[in-house]
Amino acid sequence: TEIAVWSGDTVKRDEDGFLYFVGRRDEMIKTSGYRVSPTEIEEVVYATGLVDEVIAVGLPDPVLGQSIALVATPPKGADTPLNDAEILRACQRTLPAFMVPQRIACCPESPMPRNNNGKIDRKRVIALYLNHPAL
């Protein structure tokens, strides 16, 4: 007997029946008619080595539904600012066009603000660094 528990997590099942975490349902970005997992975008950005921390979020957009924005911290010990152009190029090379961020903001605070569970406080980061009320 299998038991399903509603957790708010989105998963995908492969051909062997294994489940893989995609993201939290409440964090999914709805853009251009697609549901996008912030985790997929964040993994691409982390792979560049150009950031220490990053979050991808959806911001209200009258045309797209939501536009994708990143908030990132420069790598630890970096003497140069966040390289927005290189991050964007990496996203364009790797991701479908609808998943490429339209905006990148720098969070000079490292580590990023955390919630009581030790996770990045996404709502606070959005409010502080995207000049947008917490969603």
Concise overview:
The protein has 135 residues and is an alpha+beta fold.
From the structure above, extract its key features.
alpha+beta, GMP Synthetase, Chain A, domain 3, 22% helix
Describe the structure.
It is a single chain. The chain is α+β, with helices and mostly antiparallel strands and 135 residues long. The chain has a single domain (26-129), classed as GMP Synthetase, Chain A, domain 3. It has helices at residues 38-48, 84-94, 122-129, and strands at 9-13, 19-24, 29-31, 34-36, 53-61, 65-73, 103-106. Helix 1 crosses helix 2. The radius of gyration is 16 Å and the shape is globular. The N and C termini lie far apart (38 Å).
Q: Strand pairing plus helix content: what structural class?
A: alpha+beta
- Number of beta-strand segments: 7
CATH-defined fold name: GMP Synthetase, Chain A, domain 3
Which blocks of ≥5 consecutive residues have pLDDT under 50?
Answer: none
